Amino acid sequence: MRRVVITGAGSWNGFGAGVPRFLEALQNSRCAIGDMTLFSTAGFRTGRAAVAPTPEVDDLAGIGVGPRLSRSDGMALAAAREAWQSSGIGETKLATDRIAVVVGGTTGGMLEAEEVLRRRRSGELARMHLRGLVTMPVASTADVLAHAFGCAGARATVVTACSSSANSLGFAADLIQEGRADAALAGGTDAHCKMTYAGFNALQALAPDVCRPFDRRRAGLSLGEGAAMFVLEEEAQARRRGAVILAEFGGYGMSADAYHMTAPDPEGRGAVLAMRRALREARVAAESVEYVNAHGTGTPQNDPIETRAIKEVFGAHAQRLAVSSTKSQTGHCLGAAGAIEILATVLGLRQGFVPPTIHLEEPDPECDLDYVPGAARERRLRFAVSNSYGFGGNNTSVVLAAYP
What we know:
The chain is of the alpha/beta class. The protein folds into two domains: 4-240, Peroxisomal Thiolase, Chain A, domain 1, CATH 3.40.47.10; 252-401, 3-Layer(aba) Sandwich (Peroxisomal Thiolase, Chain A, domain 1). 32% of the residues lie in helices and 20% in strands. It contains twelve helices and 15 strands. It has helices at residues 19-27, 57-60, 71-87, 110-122, 140-149, 164-177, 194-202, 235-240, 269-282, 302-314, 327-330, 337-351; strands at 4-13, 16-17, 33-35, 48-50, 99-104, 155-158, 183-190, 226-234, 247-256, 291-293, 322-324, 353-354, 377-378, 383-390, 394-401. The strands form three sheets. Strands 1, 2, 5, 6, 7, 8, 9, 10, 11, 14 and 15 form an eleven-stranded mixed β-sheet that branches. A two-stranded antiparallel sheet has the order 3-4. β14 and β15 form a beta hairpin. α6 (164-177) crosses α12 and α9 (269-282) packs across α10 (302-314).
């Protein structure tokens, strides 16, 4: 079977633009969670969120995309450009119809659609204009990226709630392994919108201050936004062209809880199944894994259930694992969360460190693993797992390996 490697990465989130800025924030335990500045949160449980800078559309238009981009599209395009350029794949003679585009997300251009609706209801618009809604579909991002980089291969959008972008990378890897593509531009993007914010508020799932994964005082998640994009390709091809290989995409596993629309299975059976399937596909023994980037939302239910699932999969080795939740730093970026956390894991593999769980000061007795509290830790890593769980019981685990 063809081996799949990562040769390019791009980042856009609450810490700003670019992989170097994200790396610095992870290593120095920074927090991007602050005040929500995109719209009013009056009457909500909290006014806190991790807000990314607004992409400069005029600048992005220089690579061949028109000005009508949603916030979600713009963040993806900025991250994709960094991934594309850092990989050097655009300088090769690779056939464009052998480069796939796979993007995960949830709400697409909902923020812009909400503004169109507000203006129509207030009388600012005499009628609805299609041009204000063309970027609303979540599938528009893949269209934008394919157009921007001339990718004429397979194109797909994955929407499986908060596991969307982890699945997008898995599907892209499948295309390469099966010989249906030689490379793929893949990842995820999601922007804040009022609908999402109000929904999580109604579920009483938002933390009033900051997200505190695995802490006994945890009171919910903090919403975030952003994008992470990657160039994946077949290993032999990457070596032939002298590409810098950031990490190997070992494999992934999926499962469905088939339990509840918003609550996780109390026994964590779906989470266990996803991790075991990922390890089996990657042909990596549980005892070889040194780090788990946990889903770690900071909600009362998720954290002890995920802890139990990790202990079920790794057995006694679970006590030797480093486990952390980077959502404590970036907020929960929903459809983009998996890709952003996979990027954090790749950076840990590449740079020799474990990202921290910040705001963890009073551990919950039910959460009794090593969650790397407070500060990043230097550690050479060979194999790591990244978990992404979503509403509807969508579970995905990804195995990543350091590349020699």
